[in-house]
């Protein structure tokens, strides 16, 4: 059973249907009167009135759902909290200060220690005080482990209402033709759905009857401004951080965390959390009362381009580990804990387990791109008390390519489960699939029946899967991981623009070509080697297909093998003929790119050397000016002193009786000149030394830049030579 929200469009359609039936009643009554059967339809006017009233009420409810406007008091009441002193800012601010002081005192504690301290603090507060604290600082309280979950739910509901109001106002300023309109509208619609109730179906424990009620959605984490912005032109808002709980988290016997993969954000969160509703609902469509599921989008998920980078898995793993340790204080002491991770989320979970997340009963990996280069078996986790499961649906190319390490579905020491009915990368939680059945059986602790298993190979699951995996391995051997990450980052903006409709296929291919050239792809993977590998793999695939076709027709192994070999040879010859022109075109492209890069190297080197020369000239100019000024001061002073000495000597010649006095003056002048020399000569010498150092340093920079540029140019010249030889003689 899929999750069901109270949807305004559905209510409108139902109201329209009721109106239609109400409008048909007068005609029906008239026909009955014409047939003298009016007495049999006497109650129709009352029914028409009821239908009309009900339709109006449904439209009223639909309008409320379209624009939720809820006060903090309503949010508190939705989760059983009294308003109390929630309206008293002074009381709330005092409690807020106390809570922040507690967190500061616990800043060096473990996540579990901090959460326990928070739990102990909230236990000292009355429900009204808890409500006041939530209303004063909902962002802090709603995302703080250790806070009673109903208080967190209420706090996050307030934050959601505030964010919805702000973003709906922003949406009103946009036109449908604006680049940010589509995703902003999706985000506003999603925020609105968070405020609307959902429909819950369960077996009433008192009556045993199937019961359907509307209940508020429960958000354990909500921060609309967390993380990076996936595509700033499509939306100005960050991806967000959010986690939804289905079930009674504090009293559940079995708790599950769901960890998502790439491209999950606030605006498409409902698509992810749907799996949590599926997991907690049994095959009869009833939500189990002994389970709780947390759909945890607590990390900044990658987009397509940066999905090749494991960096967000490290930070996400640390966040998942901290969340598990912190929330443990709110769970039953003996509650089971399972993790169901999908796609890139399996890598996040792997990093969490390696970061110390050990108190987990079961871990299930689905559609994994790999768990990191250091994890090649379950034993590598060193968690003997945890059971590990893996699923790989037929046609799940993410698992086939192994972008982040070995596929856990191929680990020899893991339990691999059947996914009957699921295919591709995104159907593991679909209803009536073996994948969902097996997840429920793990989660319910065996109550859902026995697990089902599979041992299918790549060839069993998908034609070409084995060849695709080998091809990716070939490329990994040619392209260093850091280059792969840089390429992904360079391509991400173009990929985002393409999916947002701002860039067509042609423009995208041009950008891809530019990135490939920037990272020397045709030097790292020469075209003839690339297409040689493609031809070999295509031949292998042709052999398998022809062999199997012959076997299906009853041919013996020898005949089937001969048919396969013939198909392999034919395929390789045909592909060689068709790919030869492509290889030559790519080799021309390789030559052109290398020549361009050669020119860029020379230009960049010349610019760098010119910069060093300019810097040296500037520095030498400053040093020269200082030397000139010091020398000018010295010579000017000495010239003046010399003139004074001449005057004193002349005075002695004219007035011999002044000889003694004049001799004293000359001696003073000489002392002054000596002082000037002692003051200025070191300055001049220092200036000359600075000029020498500047010359030596900048000459070294110039020489290094020249040597580096020369080395790069020589290497690129060799690449040009190799590519030309390959084109002419290859």
Task: Describe what you observe in this structure.
By secondary structure, this protein is of the alpha/beta class. The protein is 61% helix and 8% strand. It is built from 22 helices and eleven strands. The strands form two sheets. Strands 4-5-7-6-8-9-10-11 form an eight-stranded mixed beta sheet, sandwiched between helices. β2 (198-203) and β3 (210-215) form a beta hairpin. α3 crosses α8 (149-171), α4 (89-105) packs across α6 and α5 runs parallel beside α11 (311-327). The longest helix is centred in the C-terminal third of the chain and has 98 residues, at 557-654.
Mean pLDDT: 83
Tell me the strand order in the biggest sheet.
Answer: 4-5-7-6-8-9-10-11
Structural class: alpha/beta
* Biggest beta sheet attributes: 8 strands, mixed
The poorly predicted ranges are none
Question: What helical percentage do the residues reach?
Answer: 55-70%
What is the compact description of this entry?
The protein is of the alpha/beta class and 730 residues long. Helix content is 61%, strand content 8%. It has helices spanning 8-34, 44-66, 72-78, 89-105, 111-123, 127-136, 138-142, 149-171, 181-195, 269-280, 311-327, 344-354, 397-401, 434-443, 458-461, 465-478, 481-499, 505-518, 521-524, 527-552, 557-654, 659-729; strands spanning 4-5, 198-203, 210-215, 218-223, 241-247, 254-259, 291-297, 336-342, 362-366, 387-391, 415-416.
